């Protein structure tokens, strides 16, 4: 009788032990599945974040606006550079490109700056013969014309150095970047000197602001803003390149994705539920031991 009871208890103990092992294995499998699903979701989100570099998703217009916004340029920055992109793109190809690079944006900023300076130089040719101002003012206008012409030459030299459709590798050429900075800086200084002279002449006028002086001052102001925009793009080239080609701090992008409307709803359901299930499984696992 005792032998039968002992055998029965041994069988029951063995059966319980077998069920316990089976249950533990099931817990481990379930635990592995949950962990795998969480890792898979995080990898998907990471891939989405990495694909959200500016170059991968943005249209040329969006990329140009992002660059102009980064350097705090006026609205004319994006509209003028986009115009330059469209004019070159459609003139050189029947199937226009949908991509634009930082170096191309910089080259386009030089192009629109050159066109603006060329128009300003042409205006000086028209205005000087018509300007009914003192000989002193005529001298200032002619000096401004010479300064504008020199700025035009320097920007043209910069365009030749960069090319129409450059590669981003130009930013790694320290000698070329140094030359570009010097040329653009000198072009800006020329226009600043011109502005100072025109402002001084306006203050000397007895009968208010002369129309021609005011007109040329506005033109120089606009042209100088274009030059400053090109200068700022060159100065911020590293930040712009990072914005285009790097996923901009993956953890930040992941966080932004999870806070988006669809991402937040999914995260609110998925991650807490997985966490609770894992917690429950761990409690069961430790209780069995």
TrEMBL record:
Gene3D superfamilies (UniProt xref): Invertase/pectin methylesterase inhibitor family protein
Domain Pectinesterase inhibitor: residue ranges: 63-199
Family matches, as InterPro entries: Invertase/methylesterase_inhib (IPR035513), Pectinesterase_inhib_dom (IPR006501)
GO MF terms, alphabetically ordered: enzyme inhibitor activity
Keywords: Membrane, Transmembrane, Transmembrane helix
Keyword Transmembrane attached: yes
Transmembrane regions listed in the UniProt entry: 21-45, 266-286
Protein's name in the database: OLC1v1012622C1
Source organism per UniProt: Oldenlandia corymbosa var. corymbosa
């Amino acid at each position: 009788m005792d032998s039968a009871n002992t055998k029965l208890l041994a069988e029951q103990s063995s059966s319980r032990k077998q069920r316990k092992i089976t249950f533990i294995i099931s817990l481990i499998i379930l635990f592995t599945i949950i962990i795998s699903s969480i890792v898979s979701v995080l990898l998907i989100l990471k891939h989405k974040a990495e694909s959200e570099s500016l170059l991968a998703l943005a249209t040329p217009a969006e990329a140009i606006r992002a660059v102009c916004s980064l350097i705090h340029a006026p609205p004319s920055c994006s509209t003028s550079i986009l115009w330059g992109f469209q004019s070159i793109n459609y003139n050189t190809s029947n199937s226009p490109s949908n991509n634009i690079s930082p170096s191309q944006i910089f080259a386009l900023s030089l192009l629109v700056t050159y066109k603006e300076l060329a128009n300003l130089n042409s205006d000086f040719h028209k205005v000087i013969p018509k300007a009914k101002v003192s000989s002193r003012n005529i001298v200032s206008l002619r000096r401004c014309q010479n300064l504008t012409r020199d700025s035009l030459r320097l920007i043209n030299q910069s365009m030749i150095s960069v090319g129409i459709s450059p590669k981003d590798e130009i930013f790694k050429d320290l000698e070329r970047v140094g030359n570009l900075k010097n040329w653009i800086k000198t072009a800006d200084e020329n226009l600043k000197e011109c502005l100072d002279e025109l402002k001084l002449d306006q203050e000397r006028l007895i009968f208010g602001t002369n129309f021609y002086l005011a007109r040329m001052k506005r033109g120089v102001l606009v042209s100088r803003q274009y030059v400053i925009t090109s200068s700022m793009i060159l100065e911020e080239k590293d930040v712009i390149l990072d914005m285009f080609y790097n996923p901009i701090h993956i953890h930040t992008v992941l966080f932004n994705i999870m806070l988006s409307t669809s991402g937040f709803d999914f995260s609110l359901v998925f991650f807490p539920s997985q966490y609770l299930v894992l917690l429950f499984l761990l409690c069961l696992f430790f209780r069995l031991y």
